[in-house]
Amino acid sequence: MPKLFSTETFQQAIDTRLAEIPMRQISFSQKSVRPFGRVRRIVAVAAVVCIFVTCSGVLAASFPALQELFGIVGEDTSKLLQPIELSCTDNNITMEVLATIDDNETSLIYISLQGVPEDATLLNPMLSNSEIPLSCTLLHYDKPTQTGFYCLSGYTTNAISTLSLQTLLIDADNEIQTNTGLSAQTLIQEFTTPQIQENVFVTAFSRQYAENSDYVEPATPTLLSPGEVLSQWDNVFPWADVTAVGIIDNMLHIQMKANALGCYTDASLYWLNAEDLPVETDLMIYEFGETFTQGNYSYSEYKEYVLPFPEQPLSELTLGYDANGYRQVRNGNWQVTFAPDTANQIIETACDFYFGSYHINTISVSSLGVTLSGQEQDSDTLEACIEVYDINGSLIPLSGSIIESDGTYISLKEIFETPISLTQIDCVVVDGVQVMLLAQ
Amino acid sequence: MPELDIDHLVQTYQASLMRTCYLYLKDVHLAQDAVQETFLKVYRHQAQFDTACSEKAWIMRIAINVCKDYLRSAWHRKVNVVESLKEIPAAPDTYRNDDLLMEVMNLKPKYKEVILLFYYQDMKIKDIAIVLNKPESTIAVRLKRARDLLKCRLERLDAETV
Question: Most buried of A89, A251, A359, B115 (most Cβ within 10 A)?
């Protein structure tokens, strides 16, 4: 056994077993590289104060929208918010940053957008000093003024940062289980000898796995050579321009070139059987070509869908798809620069709880949530039932939780659905044990 | 500040970084993402490279932080390490190493990272302390616990096989 723990044997064991692990081609001779399409989300975030306005921003003396926001969130929550009152206008849409609240861990930023339809989706609103898009909730839509009120949430920034929004997606268009009417047999007959390209620099790759799939994608995929737009495919996939189709290694390849709306479409291709039901197969999606950036969003010039033929009679299979996209896009440059304000008051109380080998020794409560923190020793999960009661004895609704751990220190934060005054909070109950909040 | 030859760094470190990220994240595709993001960060932040630490330590620090971010993501899913390893083709005589790899993958992140940096990346405790931003004493303790855990699990496996 001790021999195992020599660097040499350890390295050898890993290097020989993982010698064939597929690797992507990475090169920095390209003009730009898109760092893959993973989506990251967070549960909640922090507050900040506006001091500057960039873009065409102006400092407003008083925003009627702020009063409207106060009406939406209610008097109790309004008292907790710090008015910001800064705005900027672009492409006939005005973004107003109305108010914020922060507890030094998470922050909420309340904004309004004037001149947008009710179903507008804010694509990746960002703070300049964070790489994680803010999550967004529509609080209220005022039809006469076409104004949406939103709550953006994210991690606290603790530094001057710029809130930016550059793309609005409108009129969602979701097509589910659409049968293209193209049979597998026809496709195999018509596209058997495609023009191919090898050593493609793949800018992003994603894969949907079939259950029990044993297909291992190659490190360097063989893809179709981009061609002219094939007009006969215009009606098959309305969201994209098809530039090549072919069969390679018993897999259907369909290559699409992004267009103005299609670049925001999230599509999935599959085979439909004789009963018009999806057949479970793998789906590989390779992206390559030039990388475009539209606001905070980037995408590649080409997307190639690779769909293996399943072991079923081809005559029974037709090509189907799901596609979630939008019929309109509004681009602009809405930016407002903030600086953090003094964090909201926090009540901290010492306690002594053990969950497995976690030792929780502090409970802190702010207007945004309750946090348990302490030492981590050797457990895998911290599972504690946390309830917070207001002074009327009512349970305060929670919206989600954030766990942070560095291996020795752990904190679990439960976020309130809406900010609440500390004077309204009576007690915290952890696994049935009531904790008095002494600072009150 | 000397300019970094990023393509050379990719050539030098990609393979070992990919294996490290795979063992850390237990998912080939996530590991590919992590390696790509690591080099992208190296490329973008090369001006911040501190010559006081080695380029390897700097890259490993970025990679470990990227992996930690992925593990924190709400999208991170539980992975069956046996299934995950099956995805990677290998010569039949190398499958005997699967037990070791599986046990490494099943370690908690704080133990896994010290084991991988010390034994696989051949880094000194002093450098690992820089990479993980922890005191050297903490690294030494974790390394001992990780080694004990791994040894215990492998011995148990051996006994079960017999």
Answer: B115
